Amino acid sequence: MIKGGAPVGVFDSGIGGLTVAHAIENRLPAERIHYFGDTAHMPYGERSPALVCRYATRIARHLVDSGCKALVIACNTASANALDAVRAEVGPDIPVIDVVAPVVAQVVKSRLSSIGVIGTRATVASGLYGRLLRAGGTAEVHEFATPLLAPLIEEGWHHSESNIIEPIIRGYLDRAAFGNLDGLVLGCTHYPLASAGFASVLGAGVKIFDAPAAVADSLAEALETAGLLADAGLAGGVVNRPAHRFEVSDLTPSFSASARVFFGANLSLEACDLWTD
Ligand code: DGL
Description:
Elements: E1 8-12, H1 16-27, E2 33-37, H2 49-65, E3 70-73, H3 76-90, E4 96-98, H4 100-110, E5 114-119, H5 121-126, H6 128-135, E6 140-145, H7 149-154, H8 165-176, E7 183-187, H9 195-202, E8 207-209, H10 212-225, E9 245-248, H11 253-263, E10 269-271
Parallel strand pairs: 1-2, 1-3, 2-9, 3-4, 5-6, 5-7, 7-8, 9-10
Helix pairs in contact: 1-10, 2-3, 4-6, 8-9
């Protein structure tokens, strides 16, 4: 029987999913996170749907075999191309949360009528955001692939003093020629790391939608429904913060740096190659 004290598995191709993991830690401080960053295969956005499915199902199997009670696919590319495959792999007892549905629900609730969506090539090619938003009543949806952004962010360029990310964001939005947008969906979990750049390019008139907080809320709801919430262990009102586990398929300096920014200098990072026999 799966117990509430088991960890929540969270995965992405690299550091993007850390934005989601961090929001989960804030929203559900008693939950233990087992994170997998598939840095060896990043960027997922340039892979075929079949390959993304292969990577995502392998990681899902690993996380569940390691004892995870629920999974968060903290990657739009894998959510858009491999959600059904991951659910089929892990079976009905493991709640699987993706990053697309919670953001779509937020946009639909906002009732804004002209929405832009940017993401990786594989996310935009799936057309999933467009289909779900139109079905939810959003009048106009414009999707555009921005493939340079995730690798730049993975390399830490959103921190660069020369602020190189802003002209690239501006260049993509010019090319996309979205017209007058009411809102923009950051359809890649790497993009919130460059949220200051997006806010400055878009200005106050365009609402930015992204995954982290919405996904953490969906996870909380799913764990509660399944009776799988961790015991907060409140001692004197203070939550007992559990130790998280971080694995990557290739140990990269950018992953170590970002993981430490979000989760502190003492985190332990393990290399884990799931693909060699
Ligand atoms: N963070 C990922 C996403 O949300 C993927 C970036 C990539 O590996 O291309 O799509």
